[in-house]
Amino acid sequence: MATCETRTVPFVLVGAGGVGAALLEAIVGARALHKARYGIRFSALAVCDSSAAVSGADAAGGLSDAEIAALIAHKASGGKLASQSGAVVRPAEQDASVFLESLVDKYSKEAPDTIVVDCSATDATVPALLKAATTANMRAASANKKPFADSSFRNFRELCLAPTSPARVRYESSVGAGLPVIAALARVVSAHDAVTLISGSFSGTLGYVMSGLQAHAACAHARSTRAHPC
Fold first, then answer.
1. The pTM is what?
2. What is 41-102 written as a DSSP string?
3. Counting C-beta atoms within 10 Å of the first and last residue's C-beta, which end of the chain has fewer, N or C?
4. Which of 132, 159, 174 is the last residue of a domain?
5. How do 52-54 and 88-89 pair as beta strands?
6. Are 85 and 50 in contact (CB under 8 A)?
7. Distance in angstroms (rounded) separating the CA atoms of residues 58 and 98
8. What is the DSSP-derived secondary structure letter of residue 228?
9. Per-residue pLDDT reduced to its tens digit, 130-140
């Protein structure tokens, strides 16, 4: 029986804190599943934060799993990506948004099928996401709600309301602790069904705090133990 060749899916990760590190660990841990079930292998071309971007020794092949593990450990110890060997450091006079957009521009030419993944908690990623959303073959996925809820309506329209947005921009995990409310709503709207009322609590942070209060924790304690996303 013939076996399908594994397809490489390149991505650039912005935000290497708690959420970004968890994503990298999940990707590495699911290598066998991704290959067996979907015939794909996610390749991290670069991991970025506000200070720098780190790519692997094999730039075309992306960061190895060993390099990813070392990077996660470095960030967990409080280190900055700028102190990593071979890092592309953001110039002190350059705005973080300009730096991140320039990286997306670079990979749009070198690896046109790249997915830009935003696991940060900053609006500095907006130009980079817009670049990915409006560049042929590139895609964007975000766990960061700021580009969608704390930005201009023009940015929201370009990210979410363009005809190609459903296939190229995904932001499901930016609301409701990853509950599949956005995809379900998008399918209803695409079927030309009228949505007359949406009711619920869609804040993962609020749900976390409420669960702490139900467990009889003090409100201050429940809030302080909420993991910061970036």
1. 0.82
2. EEEEEEEE-SSEEE--SSTTT---HHHHHHHHHHHHTT--GGGSTT-EEPPTTS-HHHHHHH
3. N
4. 174
5. antiparallel
6. no
7. 25
8. P
9. 999 888 889 99
